[in-house]
Design brief:
Rossmann fold; N-(1-d-carboxylethyl)-l-norvaline Dehydrogenase, domain 2; 2 domains; five-stranded mixed sheet; two-stranded parallel ribbon; 7 strands
């Protein structure tokens, strides 16, 4: 996702290759990014820093940037709770909260970057006319865009975890085939979604565990039960071994859940 966000941003876009994988370097090159070497060099040259990383690393990244004395606008576009977004915002004079919804931005109409905060319009202008559609949440401050992201992902990613757990339960009790038959009769399309969960969701589970924790925290902060998404986080933790393995089968996924 990060490379496509950077590619959609106007102006000179810097990135830091220090410590990054060969695959990440290749994506950055394909996106036309300028390598500044390390984070400190990026921060020194940039007027806007956009953070796109797995949610468990969002606070650490913000602290690293803030520690350099960065005086520009910091955009946290990670899947974090509103309270985490506000914690990050407290480290910067200029902060914009961001929430990415949709797949990696490769074609128009698929992906949106929701923005909130006093400088949201300034950040949105960097993406106008690109494949990534910026949407400013009027009147919103730090935490507003993150709240929207949490609400959205609580359904999309939460139900994927539930579906995988339901299928694992059926397998454990010896009624997997019977459940698939009933789904075909009464809920057509669910079996296809299960197959997609194995091939598309399991390879990303390693970075969704932290997102489930952030969603659970969001529910708790709103006075709502948080247990479902904590359980979803455990489902994804059990699937971490499938990182970057799009060939994962339903059988392999269920076996991992039942260990």
């Amino acid at each position: 996702m990060g490379a496509t966000v950077a590619a959609a941003c106007s102006g000179t876009v810097l990135w830091a290759s220090d410590g990054r994988s060969e695959a990440t370097c290749r994506r950055a090159t394909e996106a036309g990014l300028t390598d500044a070497g390390d984070i400190e060099s990026v921060v020194t040259a940039a007027d806007v820093v956009i953070s796109v990383c797995p949610p468990h690393g969002a606070v650490e990244m913000a602290e690293r940037v803030a520690g350099t004395g960065f005086a520009g606008c910091y955009v946290d576009a990670n899947a974090v709770s509103p309270s985490t977004a506000r914690k990050i915002a407290s480290r910067f004079d200029s902060f914009v909260d961001g929430g990415l919804i949709g797949p990696p931005a490769r074609r128009p109409g698929t992906t949106r970057l929701y923005l909130s905060g006093a400088d949201a319009g300034r950040v949105a202008a960097r993406f106008e006319g690109s494949v990534l559609e910026p949407r400013v949440l009027d009147g919103g401050g730090p935490g507003t865009a993150s709240a929207l992201k949490m609400a959205y992902a609580s359904w999309t990613k939460g139900t994927s975890a539930l579906l995988a757990a339901v299928a694992a339960l059926a397998a454990a009790e010896g009624v997997a085939d019977d459940l698939l038959t009933e789904w075909d009769l009464s809920l057509p399309g669910v079996a296809d979604r299960l197959a997609g969960t194995a091939g598309e969701v399991a390879p990303k589970a390693w970075r969704w565990t932290g997102e489930m924790d952030e969603i659970a925290a969001t529910f708790a902060e709103a006075g709502l039960p948080d247990g479902f998404h904590r359980a979803a986080g455990e489902v994804y933790r059990r699937l971490r071994a499938f990182k970057n393995s799009p060939e994962t089968t339903v059988e392999e996924m269920l076996e991992a859940l039942l260990r």
